[in-house]
Amino acid sequence: MFPQERLFSKTIIPYNICLGNDIVGKVCLVFLGETIGIYDFEIYPPFRNMGYAKQFLLLLLDRNKNSEKQKVFIQTWRENISANTLYLSQAFKVFDNYYYFKLKKILIC
């Protein structure tokens, strides 16, 4: 599903990630039966490398621990090394790889 299609889904909920009065990032959560999906998780550049991503992720996983939602998945880009490092450090495993393609500019004569 492309991001613009997810925005119109009834199961996706966008959130701001706040620290005090500052909005330090954003995340979209998808609730599918017993599963929570994490999409578009981002800490904004001025707030990166301060541990906020890990703090938020641990809080989300801790709150999920005793709920009916027993599975959590995260979708991220393969090239996002810091995100992948964080997720792998919290015992997430790579489940599948998706591939994306870019269409080169085509001249139509």
Query: In terms of per-residue confidence, which ranges show pLDDT below 50 for 5 or more consecutive residues?
Result: 1-8
**Distinct helical segment count:** 3
- The top level CATH class name: Alpha Beta
Strand content: 25-35%
Look at the structure and give the mean pLDDT: 81
User: What's the architecture, going by CATH?
Assistant: 3-Layer(aba) Sandwich
Task: Note the main sheet.
Answer: 4 strands, mixed
SSE order, one letter for each helix or strand? HEEEHEH
The backbone outline, from C-alpha atoms, is globular
Please give the domain count. 1
The helical percent reads 10-25%
Quickly give the structural class: alpha+beta
The number of strands is 4
Roughly how many Å apart are the termini? 33 Å
Task: Give an overview of the whole structure.
The protein is of the alpha+beta class and 109 residues long. The chain has a single domain (3-89), classed as Aminopeptidase (3-Layer(aba) Sandwich), CATH 3.40.630.30. 24% of the residues lie in helices and 29% in strands. It has 3 helices and 4 strands, in the order αβββαβα. It has helices spanning 3-6, 52-64, 81-89, and strands at 12-19, 22-32, 35-43, 71-74. A 4-stranded mixed sheet has the order 1-2-3-4. The radius of gyration is 16 Å and the shape is globular. It starts with a helix and ends in a 20-residue tail after the last helix. 11% of the residues are buried. Mean pLDDT is 81; it is low at 1-8.
